[in-house]
Structures
1.
Amino acid sequence: MAMSSKDPIDIWLRAEQGSAGRKPEHSRASIVQAAVKIADDQGIEAVSIRKVAAAIGAGAASLYRYVKSHDELIELMLDEISGEYVLDPANGAEGEAPQRALLDLARQGRQIMRRHLWSAPLFLSQPSMGPNSLAYLDFALSILQETSLESSAKLRTAAMLTAVTSAFVQNELPLHPGANHSPVDASARAAYMAQVLPTDAYPALAAVMAEELAPVNLDMEFEKIIGTYLQGAGLSERK
Amino acid sequence: MAMSSKDPIDIWLRAEQGSAGRKPEHSRASIVQAAVKIADDQGIEAVSIRKVAAAIGAGAASLYRYVKSHDELIELMLDEISGEYVLDPANGAEGEAPQRALLDLARQGRQIMRRHLWSAPLFLSQPSMGPNSLAYLDFALSILQETSLESSAKLRTAAMLTAVTSAFVQNELPLHPGANHSPVDASARAAYMAQVLPTDAYPALAAVMAEELAPVNLDMEFEKIIGTYLQGAGLSERK
DNA sequence: TCTAATTGCGAACACTGTTCGCAATTAACG
DNA sequence: CGTTAATTGCGAACAGTGTTCGCAATTAGA
């Protein structure tokens, strides 16, 4: 009441607006979905207010009736795809080892980030607080409930789990044929490497590159990395 | 020779330009340093071509004589601060355990990212190829040389090491007093949490938040996280 | 001295996020 | 039923962005 400015974070509280007035022609959900589709197809940088507005057949300024800012739109997008997690309570069952349940969560996260390539870096920098993100966090914490970790350690373990997943996805992408969102394309990088390596300025790097890179099984690597990370996190001891 | 367009990635090859002509009033190094300073003070979003140009007393368009694009400037910034690593050969000595040497590297990385807060997310998304970045990579690989890992595993271990470090720094920042680069400020988030938690929609989260969060020793957590990650990476076996 | 190459940079273009003001629409109230 | 108040849609405008172009200024070598 006494606050001079409206609450800055009504993002997740703001209801879909009350009774009187012209009825809205769009919805926040459809806008976010359109934005996600654009990001999937053309990269995150293509997600501009004007393009999203055009995608749903609206004027640019109209979007601000549903979304407060561009940053908020991106936060909504992140929460949207966080809804793709399948939080099956069977995975959190008491019988299950926490490791397995968390590994499953990480697997899902990897798939989600691969479906939405733009999201991998963002999951790192943006600690989202939307309902889907909170549901995910809550689920991960419920799994960790069975361990003897301190609550702060639980929180960080959950956060680091998605962080490591995001890092892995980020690193596995260049090895794949897919799209090329790098500032400079990969072929140029390769040519550059070939030109700079013989300088024997980077002997260890040259040695590694010299070996024929056996086609890596990324799935197995992922399992191993997450598995060993969880093992190291000290979940083994039951409460 | 037959290439129609100039090589796209002369970023690191382009010499500081030959003999004849007006002598440059600036240098790529000074530009990058100015950009880093701006990012340190005002955040990465404040690093615009015009602001950097103004900082060194130049016209906006002049920057393009030293830097090909905004993206390239940021890549140069990343390589610049990668030069802050102290790659002491003593750490890579054969007697040292690889784990210790890599842990030291991660410690340095953490400090660098804390000095340049904007860099933590970027280290994730941008696989830089500048001389300093390559020197760092080469050093890490030379440490891993003593292990029995496959070369692809070596590469990914090195990449994941900085990735995990970046993730940790990203997660430890909100716990610190420092600057606030989040889309919405932390106090608002806290208020929101307080309002949404009693909904008992997130019981595990509520349970964790209820416990008094003992002031965490971030340094110790870092050591543990990196240590256990390296332990799981399978470095233990000597070659 | 002339020539060729290089830098500096104002001006412009195509974008971007965001705000403002106003017309159009709708629900509720008297 | 008419009036009022609230809400949406959105064209226009503003400030800021990355980038390109053309030209003047400067410099080294022929």
2.
Amino acid sequence: MSKNAKFDRAEVVEKATNLYWEKGYHGTSMRDLQATVDLRPGSIYAAFGSKDNLFKEAINHYANSTGKLLQLCLDETSSPLAGLKLFIRKITIENRENAPSDMCMIVKSISELTDNDNKELLDEAKALLNGVESRFADIIEDAMQTGEISSNKNAMDLARYMQVQIIGLRTYSRVNDDQTIIEKFIDDIFVGAPFH
Amino acid sequence: MSKNAKFDRAEVVEKATNLYWEKGYHGTSMRDLQATVDLRPGSIYAAFGSKDNLFKEAINHYANSTGKLLQLCLDETSSPLAGLKLFIRKITIENRENAPSDMCMIVKSISELTDNDNKELLDEAKALLNGVESRFADIIEDAMQTGEISSNKNAMDLARYMQVQIIGLRTYSRVNDDQTIIEKFIDDIFVGAPFH
DNA sequence: ATGTATAATGAACGAGTGTTCCACTTGAAA
DNA sequence: TTTCAAGTGGAACACTCGTTCATTATACAT
């Protein structure tokens, strides 16, 4: 063996994630990254291999953190739907000021990446968004089990509905960030047609 | 006087728009543009000034075309809401294969541009999206006049609701492009809570 | 036919891109 | 204390970026 006391990898990924999240894949240069994670190219490339690879690790870290936040919301509320609602409130309102961007990093990535130029990263982002959707479906099935939602509904349909509302709302909130309007919209999501 | 038989400016803007729409602002290089509009840098810079300026013209052209499409949909249907629904169907399903991207170019731009690095273009895009929203509000007010919608609803609220649904659905359709699901979703938009 | 103002061309500029390479440093094993 | 594989720093590479500008081509007025 030899030396192994390097930088804190988790911390580097966290910082890289925030930069990619803010500026997007194309808007972030390796020199931007080098500066914000305070590492020289040699170290970054030894640890992550390429800009693409670092991005992949970043977006996975993002999805992971978001998943943990969702679980936290479910744990501190009394029902699946209440947890879901708290989660939406957190990402659209409460965590807004500290977040690098108003929008979901996965959605931003899906929006800017193309099949022609960045197929691999795009597919990664799509897979992660699908992961979120099936997590939503699980939660909704829990809600059907407890009777919070009528059990003759289709969980996948509702999960999809949730997904569209959140994507739409977060993007919309970049143009109109009136907090009361956003809050009202969140309330309306849960009395929307698919739930009846 | 002297020479004035130049290239067709409208045609150049159209081609530039499609490229920006597909690849985004950062993903499109001036050399990409030079190739697709078949002009040398000198001509482009004489006519448009800069990459930013050309983008501004492109996104305005896009908003204009979309506005015309919406009007067309209203003209060939029997009610404001039917027109709106046809419009949504067109942009999400019918025009899909010919379009450079599944998503709305304005939304893509709002998603990728930042206040720090591209404030001017971002503000332009936001203004255009707000323009769409007030157009929606006008249409909804028409629908209230004809009794298609209860007139104790708030037109701005409904316009905002439409906006969020369209943004969410178009983005979502990039991950799941099952046509029957998209169609079902469009139907559901118009029986959604805000309409009752 | 000639002169002239304007448009189009494309080489070139400096700065920035992702990435590589190698000399240097480090710290655990011997 | 010596050894040496692994980690780090930073100059440099080949290329691309947005943009400029001197040159050449063009078409109208005379």
